[in-house]
């Protein structure tokens, strides 16, 4: 999901008995396969990945907790690329998928019922007030949540400030994150902490997840229950952002590869891309499409208007709505635009151009409820990516710095 903003830088899954039996059968098969040298290599690769994932923030007693599914999937994919048979690799991925399903059980919808029962009302009130001040609050907060979850998982690491400007937010892919998104979290955190019962009990990661749901709903999108229980990460580096976020020129294979590595399907990716219905983008992110040779996949009249708004030496702060028709409403107009060749970014338009994703675009364009339902499914799955729970991480007193 690439979305820049005009203000610039500044529930629980249930495993059925049948499924358990199915997984048990596969575990027995895997045990018998462990004598195969290549499988041992894959398992070794996975173990290394697990160890690397936990060395930073987990106390010794937590070393054997399940790591995030995307990390394991990338490790297995790397081993499979060496010479694992497709059937063996598929078997391992099936087992990891079962782990991914159960790992989200660490989050729950009523996580703060006893410690901060009014957390959702407090966050929503703060978000509502902020949105009344500027609409940019909505796209900025949604984009901030996406960027946080795709880098080191949903742990609010994107909020951390580095005195040496070496944090995630200093990476070129994050410098355009709008200040209003960060400010939304700051204000929501202050509102939560204003209740003595809640003070320093709710993570910044959960506050961001709740604020994201609220901005989407307040501008016309669906309301959905948010799974809670995330802990805040203690690490934020520029290097961790590299190659972890989709670019404005990505093709479908590149988009799918990145989203699949985070446990998200092609349908999830298309639904989350629909968040661009309230987004903005700076001219330099699509300037190649409207240069001397206009991209033939772009609606010509639309391209000519874009050339007028974004001339060669345009102010780099100028940003355009990704949906020129209803830019302040979370609706399905974005998908209708793609049908007309009016996707602003190449990574938007490719969703309609590529026949593998076109049917989903057409479905969402014709059925707004189908889009909203798919978006809820996708953003819920997004909110589970790489979460820290239990004794991992911390509950930050100040969202911009570790305790």
TrEMBL record:
One of its GO terms (molecular function) is lactoperoxidase activity. Its cofactor is Ca(2+); heme b. InterPro entries: Haem_peroxidase (IPR002016), Haem_peroxidase_sf (IPR010255), Peroxidase_pln (IPR000823), Peroxidases_AS (IPR019794), Peroxidases_heam-ligand_BS (IPR019793), Secretory_peroxidase (IPR033905). Keywords: Calcium, Disulfide bond, Heme, Hydrogen peroxide, Iron, Metal-binding, Oxidoreductase, Peroxidase, Secreted. The keyword Iron applies. It catalyses: 2 a phenolic donor + H2O2 = 2 a phenolic radical donor + 2 H2O. Its EC number is 1.11.1.7. Pfam families: peroxidase. Residues 106-403 form the Plant heme peroxidase family profile domain. Residues 1-22 are annotated as: Disordered. It is an enzyme of class 1 (oxidoreductase). Residues 1-18 have a biased composition (Polar residues). It is found in: Secreted. Binds 2 calcium ions per subunit. Belongs to the peroxidase family. Classical plant (class III) peroxidase subfamily. Removal of H(2)O(2), oxidation of toxic reductants, biosynthesis and degradation of lignin, suberization, auxin catabolism, response to environmental stresses such as wounding, pathogen attack and oxidative stress. These functions might be dependent on each isozyme/isoform in each plant tissue. This is Peroxidase. It comes from Stylosanthes scabra. The lineage of its organism: Eukaryota, Viridiplantae, Streptophyta, Embryophyta, Tracheophyta. The gene is PER16_2.
